[in-house]
Design brief:
Blueprint (H helix, E strand, L loop, with lengths): L17 H9 L5 H19 L2 E2 L3 H16 L11 E5 L26 H8 L3 E6 L11 E2 L3 E2 L15 H8 L5 E6 L5 H7 L2 E4 L18 H6 L1 E6 L2 H11 L24 E4 L10 H16 L3 E4 L4 H17 L3 H7 L2 H18 L5 H24 L2 E5 L15 H10 L1 H9 L3 E9 L2 E9 L4 H15 L9
Parallel strand pairs: 2-3, 2-6, 9-10, 9-11
Antiparallel strand pairs: 1-3, 4-5, 6-8, 7-8, 7-12, 11-13, 12-13
Helix pairs in contact: 2-3, 5-6, 8-16, 10-12, 10-13, 10-15, 12-14
Length: 480
């Protein structure tokens, strides 16, 4: 059999994309065990330097790789991620492993079943090699906790890898795994992807099933309506592959769909709205340059690119700090009991952000009015996206933050909240968004964010692929 001309020629399989690995394993050009051994070697070389993967599961992975190779030899049906090394986040149940979420007191909370997100990746053929680190209770844009310690950004150890899926993004960026699972209710997929120079997709709510609380615990309304599971990878093609693998039904998720809807054709399918400015923060030059580059590449590819304003996102950003922070109040006793200093400070600082608009004790009537207002904003955005089906905007107004800027003072967190306003605005409304790199500035990755109509992830990925074709793929990198 002749080698696939699209496959890399290097035998450093940790550099290969998930798409190329799955294709080569299926074609018997390389075995799942060979791929695993090479990735395990890479993990051994770089993970001690950045601490992205914890609870390593090499013994289980070896068994899974042998099963994967036996299935290929027997000519059995293979999943889209067959034999591909993958990681799962420490806030997601994986049978036989602790769902610690970075909390020392939960170090022995062994899961007895796979979460929906784990089940889907496993059934697609993914091989779990370890669990990715996250901040305590997955609450910060900075990945560290008292149980596993700090995860470094492979580009610069003085900068955050993002959070809460910072371990996932750092593992992908440094070549430990080609695909990692993460989740997002306040930027936890998109910001780590941005900070580490990889691609991260926040799918539409309901497309990818997930659950992050025990079966006997009632999930909060904001978690049900805003939180999503999604993939991080080094290429847009791999994110598309992982999204297809993760898009299914699971009865444990109350919003999970049996069939993913196909959006009707937009009135202006090739129009892109460029949202450069907002009313809450000012972009640094590198961020403006990234938006300019992406807009230029899309225009050159035939998109009609126009500058827009969209103040409803500013309103949605403020709503997040009412709806989510009020939903979080029942968790405050737990934060006091098991939370580390970083968690306790960031929670207090987030309430300080909320207080500037909603006061110290919002009423039930104010919360009900905010939920009603959310529906109006969703309707307004849906109508806007009929004419501008893709919105190009910054992921963040700055590059990856220096460590602990969120917990210095309440004022420092208020500043970061403004810089990160879209991290909150988009989840409130439940729309899909893609973070894609555009290049490197001053030694750090920079990129843009694309927003699209609900269930129109294909439009996001098509536009993201055009940006990537011009910007190139920035990773894997050796940790600095």
């Amino acid at each position: 059999m002749r080698p696939d001309p699209h496959l890399p020629t290097s035998d450093e399989f940790w550099r290969w994309s998930a798409t190329h690995l799955a294709r080569a394993i299926r074609a018997k050009e390389v075995s799942a065990r060979e791929v695993l051994d090479n990735c395990v070697k890479r993990i051994g070389e770089v993970n001690p330097r950045i601490n992205a993967l914890v609870d390593l599961s090499f013994d289980e992975a070896v068994e899974a790789a042998q099963v994967a190779d036996d299935m290929v030899a027997a000519g059995m049906a293979l999943g889209p991620l067959h034999g591909v090394p993958t990681s799962l986040k420490i806030n997601s149940d994986q049978e036989g492993f602790a769902t610690s979420n970075g909390v020392v007191a939960f170090a022995d909370a062994i899961a007895t079943d796979d979460s929906p997100q784990a089940r889907l990746l496993r059934s697609a053929g993914g091989i779990f090699v370890g669990r990715s680190n996250a901040p305590t209770l997955s609450y910060r844009w900075f990945t560290e906790n008292d149980l596993f310690g700090r995860t470094s950004n492979p580009w610069d150890s003085t900068r955050t890898p993002g959070g809460s899926s910072g371990g996932a993004a750092a593992a992908v960026a440094s070549g430990m795994v080609p695909i990692a699972q993460g989740n997002d209710i306040g930027g936890s997929l998109r910001y780590p992807a941005y900070a580490c120079g990889v691609v991260g997709l926040r799918p539409t709510v309901g497309r990818v099933p997930g659950r992050m609380v025990p079966p006997d615990v009632d999930d909060s309304l904001s978690m049900q309506l805003m939180a999503v599971q999604g993939p991080l990878a080094r290429t847009v093609e791999d994110v598309r592959l992982a999204l297809d693998a993760m898009s299914s039904f699971d009865p444990r998720d109350p919003l999970s769909l049996h069939t993913v809807p196909s959006p009707s054709p937009a009135r202006q399918p090739r129009r892109v709205g460029v949202l450069r400015r907002n009313g809450v923060s000012t972009n640094i030059q590198a961020v403006d340059d990234a938006v300019d580059s992406a807009a230029g590449w899309l225009a050159a590819a035939g998109y009609e690119v126009e500058e827009i304003e969209l103040p409803l996102l500013e309103e949605a950003y403020r709503l997040w700090y009412l709806l989510c922070m009020q939903d979080f109040r029942p968790m405050l006793p737990l934060v006091g009991q098991v939370g580390d200093i970083g968690l306790q400070r960031i929670v207090a600082h987030c309430y300080a952000v909320a207080e500037q608009w909603w006061g110290a004790e919002p009423t039930l009537d104010e919360c009900l009015a905010a939920w009603a207002r959310r529906g109006t904003l969703i309707s307004q955005l849906q109508q806007f996206l009929e004419d501008y089906p893709i919105i190009l905007m910054p992921t963040s107004a700055e590059q990856a933050f220096e460590w602990d800027r969120d917990i210095v003072t309440p004022e420092s967190m208020c500043e970061l909240a403004a810089i990160q306003y879209s991290m909150m605005a988009i989840p409130v409304l439940g729309f899909p968004a893609l973070s894609v790199p555009t290049g490197v500035a001053d030694g750090l990755p920079v990129g843009v964010q694309l927003l699209a109509r609900r269930f129109d992830e294909s439009a996001l990925l098509d536009a993201g692929a055009l940006i990537e074709a011009n910007a190139g793929v920035l990773t894997p990198v050796d940790p600095h």
